[in-house]
Write a structure and sequence with these properties.
By secondary structure, this protein is an alpha/beta fold. The protein has eight helices and five strands, in the order βααβααβαααββα. β4 and β5 form a beta hairpin. It is globular.
Amino acid sequence: MQVNFICFHHSQLEKLRDELLSKMIYNKFPERVIYGFLRDNLSFFKISAEIYIEHSTNYEKIGLHRLIKEQLNIHSLYRGESFKICNVALESKNSLLGLQLIDIFLGMIRNIFLFNENSKRSKQKIKFIKSLFQEIDNLLPFFESFTLYEWKKSNKLSPVNIKKYIRLFLYK
């Protein structure tokens, strides 16, 4: 299983509050994550993909499902890739197990990176996440296999060494 994430600092974006920024965050970032997963596949193996995105009113409002399908199929054609996006659907939060798992992973990654112990609830989350890593065999190597990129207001995404962050979190 391949899991890709993009992170960015909201503080870097506060001066850029406009429609283009919103389009970048809600269109370009998801499209880059998905494209990163689909590209560079075997040329003799054709991929027909369906993509499921957790529903949000913002995604629905901007037509993210249509934009993602169109942009990825354009990328595939332009770059001579061997994939086609057949369907992109916005699904309700609790409708698909895969979406629920990704939501859990995102929450765990967020807590690992922020390591916020300012409230009782935050401390409980951290304690729970650490207990999961102790109790579940292969959870650590699974999380360490995630690919994380950081956007730093440049034309490239920078890879982040997720292993260092997880190890620091676990041993802090």
